[in-house]
Amino acid sequence: MLLNADYIEPVELTGYAREAAANLPDNQFTLARWLPNRPIDDLEYRFTRGGEGLIEAATFRAYDAESPIGSRPGLTRVSGELPPISRKIRLGEYDRLRQRSANAGAIRDSLMTDAERMTRSVAARMELARGDALVNGSVTINENGVVATVSFGRSGSHSVAPGTVWSTIATATPLADLLSWRQTYITTNGEAPGAMVMSSTVLGYLLRNAEIRALVGSTLGAPSRVSQAALRGILDDHELPPWYIVDEQINVNGSATRPIPVDKFLYLPAPVDPNDGEGSQLGATLWGTTAESLDPRYGLDEGERPGIVAGVYSTEDPIALWTKSAGIGLPVEANPDLSFVADVA
Fold first, then answer.
1. Are residues 140 and 277 in the same domain?
2. Is there a contact between 206 and 225 (Cβ–Cβ < 8 Å)?
3. I want to staple 33 with a disulfide (CB 3.0 to 4.6 A). Which of 145, 171, 271, 306 is the partner?
4. Same-domain check for residues 44 and 184
């Protein structure tokens, strides 16, 4: 296929695709609030795994005595290749013939729509990878001949299950669970979590739970659920962070798939701007430099090369235009113990 600029230049189409991708965290894909997008001019990821954890206290000393020697936390240098990800769609001969009475602007609009659609597909796959990282402390890829697992080394104590699953609303003790898990998080990190992430289904378990209802003066014979405001009041009283509902679903081979499974509960740091790549201590979604962006015909300056790119390509037999969106990237957790997951149902 040959790069085609008859209807729109690659640099313009790339800018349009990137603007569409930048709007997705607000409108559809939300996990970039915890693993924000970070462009890097590279084909590899490199990060230092491990965090400060609890802060080590210094010691007083006598005058004229030597300063005690401090220590650094155990850190592991992790590196690897960023995998490419792309999607294309065909504007074929029949479609072109149907548009022959239209002007070039109609074809251009079709190509821009296709570019946005393909960019959403690329962003959707990266959102699934973010969910994998947050829930499992690793990213596993097994598709199109790519088989790889990147483990971030999260502590086993940060992947738990309650003694009684929260779907058993009569006897589960979610508030006690939340307080216990919060203490584990603090013990590991020296700070409390800044967010609770769950599905609306899990939130429903909390609203109908007997333990929660008793705390607002309800009995089992009273109304079957408390209000969200009442639940928020209880959580605030116990210094628990705000909750964020994630009910995203993505089409994977015809099946609706959740980046965050419906039965999971997560403690995470407070959310940040999805496009502030340095904003979260937890990690980031790295977007590297694609081979396409290095093609001078794309017209991208050196600082513009990292990230998603889009272009139109043509074929002669059969006559067709292909719109392709491509990226290279991976979400990484540099401090994986800032995430905590519980299987609550």
1. yes
2. no
3. 271
4. no
Assess whether 35 and 115 both reside in one domain: yes
Q: How far apart are CA 28 and CA 30, in angstroms?
A: 6
pLDDT digits (tens, 9 = 90+) for 47-71: 665 554 444 556 565 666 776 655 5
Residue 223, pLDDT score: 64
Residue 332 sits in a domain whose CATH number is 3.15.30
User: pLDDT value at position 107?
Assistant: 86
Same domain, 129 and 205: no
What DSSP string describes 51-118? ---SPPP-----TTPPPPP--PPP-EEEEEEPPEEEEEEEE-HHHHHHTTTS-HHHHHHHHHHHHHHH
Parent domain of 24: 2-51+77-154+273-343
pLDDT, one tens digit per residue, over 297-341 is 999 998 899 999 999 999 888 888 999 999 999 999 999 999 999
What are the residue ranges of helices labelled H in 137-209? 174-189, 200-208
Q: Tell me which H or E stretch contains 311.
A: strand 309-315
Pairwise CA distance, residues 135 & 266, whole Å:
8
Report the mean per-residue pLDDT for the chain.
Answer: 88
User: Does some domain include residue 142?
Assistant: yes
Handedness of CA 115, 121, 122, 127 (dihedral sign): positive
Any bridge partners for residue 329, and if so which? 287
**Number of domains the chain contains:** 2
Mean pLDDT calculated for residue range 130-154: 92
